[in-house]
Amino acid sequence: MVDKVVNGERGASFTRRVDENPYQHWRFVPPVEACYKRERQTHHLTDGPLNMHQLRRHLRHLLFLSSSLLVVVPGLAADTAQEFRVAREGYRYAFPRDHGAHEEFRTEWWYYTGQLTAKDGRPFGYQLTFFRRGIPREQVKTLPSQWAITQLYLAHFAVSDLSKGRFHYAEKISRAGLGKAGAAHDRLHVWIDRWSAESPLAAPGIQTLQAAEGDMAIQLTVSSGKPLVVHGTDGISRKGSAVGQASHYYSFTRLATTGKLTIGNESFDVTGTSWMDHEFGSADLDKDLVGWDWFSLQLDDQRELMLYRLRRADGSAHPASSGTLIDRDGRGHHLLIGDFTLEPTSYWTSPASKAHYPQRWRLTIPSQQLSLELVPRMAEQELSTTRSTQVTYWEGAIETAGTAQGQPIHGQGYMELTGYAERFIKKL
Dihedral sign, CA of 33, 140, 108, 256? Predict the structure, then answer.
C-alpha cells in the first residue's frame, strides 16, 4: 500500500490508498472462473483476487445515496431481481434485529459520517460506509456451489484533515464467508477485514467503529442521545414513482462520539458528533436520474435535518426528492419536495476528475422560517473509487449558518454529491 498524493487548488491535497500489488483484490481483474480456480489452488480463500470481472460488470454501476445512498446494479435483468423482496408500505421495524443484515433485500448499507475535534482543537471529518449486495441465484448457479458468491461487501473509509486541507480515503471489496466480510442478522455487526461497526445486543444504542488502512485509523464509540428516526411515510422512503421503488431507511441523527483518530504519525484523542444511516431495498432508480445531492445537518438548537434531491438530466429535481426534520424530542416530520428549496450558489472544479460540483447552497424551509447557507469546510473531499465501485463522488464535512424564526442558528453536517463526474444514466 502506498499513498498517492494529488495537489489540488489553493494548496489543498488529498491522499488515496492505492494497492500497487496487481494481484490484490481491487487491482487485478481476471475472469470469474480464473478467480475461483486460483483460490482453490492456493487455498487463500479470502485474500486472493475476488470475482472482479463480474464485479466490474455489475458493481461499476453502483449508485450511492447516502443516507443516503441508494445502491443499484442496472446491469441486472429485471427478472433476476424478482427473487428479492422490495420495500413496501407498512413495514414495521423490530430492534435490535433490524440493525443487522436483510439478505432478502438486494442492497443494503450502513453509513457513518461525523465531525471530530482533538484536545488541541484540531478538526477532522470522517466517513465509514459498508455496503452489502445480494447476487441473484441466476448468476450464482453458474459457479461451483462451494465457491459461489451470494453476498458482496464493499466499504469506503475517509478522513478529512480540515486544518491542513488534506483528504485521505481508502476502499475495500470482498465476498461474504470465511470471516473475511459479513454482517450479523440479529444485531449490528458488519465488517470487512479490520473495518467494522458493531453494537452488543444488550446495548444497541452504543456502537463501536474501527477502521485502519495505511497511516490512517479510527477507533470510535458512538452513543445515541436521541431516538432513531424512520424516514419517509408508512415505513418506506420513496425513490421513484413505481411500486416498490423505495427503501426502508432510518437514522441515528445525533451520536455523541469519543475515541482515537490516527493520521500519519500522529494520534489524537477526539470527541464530536456523528450521524448513522441504515438503508435497505431492492428497486432501481428511475432511468432519467443522473445523480443526487444529499445533506445531513445537526443544528445547534438540537434539531436535525436530512434532505436528498434526486436529479434529472436537465438539472431538475425528481418529485420523489424529500427529507426529514427532526425535533428536539426526536420526532421526525416528513418533508416533500415542495416543502423546501435548495439552490447552489457557487461551484468548485475537481483538479482530479474535472467534475464541476456545487459547493455552497442556500436552503429554505418556509414553514419553519428556516434559512441556511451550506458551506464545505474544505473543497477537496472527492472520492474516486476506481478500484471497487468505479464511481467518483464528493462526500465531506460542511458547516451551516442562518436564521430560524428570525434568530441566528448554526450547525454542521455532511454533504454527498453524485453524478457530476459522470452521468449515471450512461450506465443504465
Answer: negative
For the chain, give the longest Cα–Cα distance: 69
**What does the pLDDT look like over 378-420, one tens digit per residue?**
999 999 987 766 789 999 999 999 999 999 999 999 999 999 9
- Assigned C-alpha cell, 272: 464530536
DSSP class of 425: G
Main-chain dihedrals φ then ψ at residue 89, nearest 5 degrees: -60, 150
Residue 3 bridge partners (DSSP)? 17
149 pLDDT tier (thresholds 50, 70, 90): confident
Q: What's the pTM value of the predicted model, to 2 decimals?
A: 0.83
The neighbour count for residue 97, using CB atoms within 10 Å, is: 14
CA angle (380, 382, 385) in 5-degree steps: 150
* Residue position matching grid coordinates 470510535: 220
Q: Residue length, the chain?
A: 428
DSSP states along 43-88: --TTTS--SHHHHHHHGGG----BTB-----TTS-GGGGGGSPPP-
In sequence order, which residues have a C-beta less than 8 Å from that of residue 426 and are 6 or more positions away? Answer: none
Share the mean pLDDT of the chain: 81
pLDDT tens readout for residues 172-202 = 999 887 778 999 999 999 999 999 999 988 7
**C-alpha cell recorded at residue 115:** 465531525
Say yes or no: domain 2-427 is CATH 2.40.370.10.
Answer: yes
Q: What are the backbone dihedrals phi and psi of residue 27, each rounded to the nearest 5 degrees, phi first?
A: -100, -40
The per-residue pLDDT for range 154-176, each reduced to its tens digit, is: 999 999 999 999 999 999 999 88
The HSE-up count of residue 258 (CA atoms within 13 Å, CB side) is 3
Element (H, E) at 363: strand 356-365
**Extents of the domains making up the chain:** 2-427
Sole residue written with cell 468548485: 348
